[in-house]
Amino acid sequence: MNLLNRELIQLLIDKALHNDLLRGHFGLEKENVRVDQDGKLALTPHPKAFGSKTENPFIQTDFSESQIEMITPAFDSIDETYHFMEALQDIVSLELDGEYLWPSSNPPMLPEEQEIPIAKMNDPLADDYRSELADKYGRKRQLLSGIHYNFSFDEGFLRKLYETEARNTDFKEFKDAIYFKVARNLLRYRWLLIYLTGASPVFDKTYIDRCVALGDSHDNKSYYVSNMNSLRNSACGYRNEKSYYVSFNSTKDYVHDLNKLIQKNELLSVKEFYSPIRIKTAKGINPLQELVEDGVAYLELRFIDINPLHRIGISKETMHFIHLFILFMLLKKDEPFNEEDQRIAELNHDQLIMEGIGGRLNDHEDRQFTMQEMAIACIDEMQEMVQLLFPKVEDYLHILNGEKQKILHSDLNPASIVKSDIQKTSYLTYHLEKAKKYAGESIQNGYRFAGYEDLELSTQLLLKAAVKRGIKFKLVDRDENFVLLSHGEHEEYVKQATKTSLDSYSTVLIMENKVVTKEVLKRHAIRVPSGEAYRSLDEAISAYETYSGIPIVIKPKSTNFGLGITIFNREYSREDMKKAFEIAFTHDRTVLLEEFMTGKEYRFLVMGDEVVGVLHRVPANVVGDGVHTIEQLVKEKNKDPLRGRGYKTPLEKIQLGEAEEMFLKNHSMGWNDIPQSGEVIYLRENSNISTGGDSIDFTDDIPNRYKDLAVQSAKAAGATICGVDMMIDHIEEEATDTNYSIIEINFNPAIHIHCYPYIGKNRKADEKILDLLFG
Questions:
Q1: pTM
Q2: If pLDDT is split at 50, 70 and 90, which confidence band does 366 have?
Q3: How do 740-746 and 721-728 pair as beta strands?
Q4: Which of 308, 540, 647, 764 could hold 534 in an S-S bridge, CB 3.0 to 4.6 Å?
């Protein structure tokens, strides 16, 4: 067999376009049905947490109120697209109260037809359209879910190819012709992709009666048809009432044929044309008109099943294979694709579904190929394509070989694996266990934004909260955690989650400078520690005679995250003080010496006119076991996956640095000491999470009088968002001048410590920022 257009391949090589060929834009849309704890269809409304059903670009409802659709933006790489869908899966799963995302294309246990809730879109036209679909196709059929794989070629590649081939057409016509050629070939060979991606071989007895009657069962609950690997792609699946042969030969013919079907009331609208491949425009508001005016924007492959073997319903390897298959369809020789060819393509589609890959391939030339032989030929030529164009990408050959094994050994196919596993239990039990397992994984991933783990955790949380609400974002400067949030015409620039337009530059300068902060607070009759500022090490060390024996704190004037701070609350030497000043001077040219305030330290997160969260931060510590040294205990505690470095995890690793060593020395200990079992060993006096401390939520325990003081302190500095650090001797007592002191106001408070405390509940600080910015 000779399917490849080798002249075109050679042209790409000669013109050095083969690397550009790999570039493209990728997107996924995934529908999932929500189910309750027992695997029954959830009859609850679309969760309010996701905002508008029509305006949220990432999380929408589909035909039914019980059906959530997750949509990624178009990305330049498969990795980015895959990870964003992972993030959407996590975001949605975390908001489902006692419900789960059903991990199959086939519906769960269904109620009676009329009990299935149609989505209420608050739009009469959209509501009427769904009602007409329900009457025409039945509600149960509409609950079949799947994955749409969206792809477009890189525009730069298409322009270079256009200039190289020098066709006597304009660029729009040339580009449209490319997409229609690929669409024709995809329609012709879709049977192969359906074989490799089909993963819905079994369905529940509550599905459509006539489809259940066609199936066999081992338990009178789970039904299957002998060789069928995808119910969704079968005659019982998601397709039009009858075959509509719409021309894919050109934009003009395609638009003409669809308009004709709509005018004859064969179709309610262009959306009802359930072709396995759809031609898509950029806006999608009036697709046929846009297609004529603006041309094709991308292709949508609509026949891919949700694969229960993968948490997001598709593997990264499958996504890469589909991409390679699309490129193969571009580089394949073009053939006519008239109505008879479409009929044959549909026949092969149905034959694959009902008979598997062993049957004879139908074509108008009556060639005697089996589907398996043709499938192997396609994979072989795809391997040749890869070796010619992308010889350095070894992973592609590995992926293609994996797909070839599924063709040679049907038991390796996802549908075969799923069917075999279901027969060990039942359709309902198998999928419900998967749903709960994947929900648990989303909970474990709760604080991470997949694909954006390099960002500070507070920024990750803010972006996840934005996606949940349908607020778009753009990374303006990734290294600086600088993002642009946008909702409609409203735009907000945010740095590190809490640096926003809500706080002026002068306010930030006040909070950044601890000398100025203390002066501002004193002028508002708010208690602060007394102390002095030093601008040289010699000047600072000369204070030893004055403060010797007095509990003190040494810290940089303008530090944040607790860096460079040393606390002496017991006897210390001149050398100890010198080392503490040296550490502080590495962070700032001015260093403060302040009286040590007694009591426990609490971080009040102030946002607007309220305290969103209060944490007691316990200094870095380990608990002895009578066997291991302090150093060994630190290393063991640092293995906790919640601990990391660079503010990308809820907790920071405990450091083994000079400050910790000095603290141990001041308490007559060293790294090699072995604490007794149960003995708590502190490694720092200051309790910042950034230096390895533990966070304990006290929001519900702190009296309002202290919260009022925190808000008052923020307002004194003119701050909308800040962290107020307060020392309190006894929280149950009145806020007198001897019972509390404000030791710092932080202009860039980490919100992740309030969203994911070591002990306590999520205070949704990320949500509050969006409330303040967007209402």
A1: 0.90
A2: low
A3: antiparallel
A4: 540
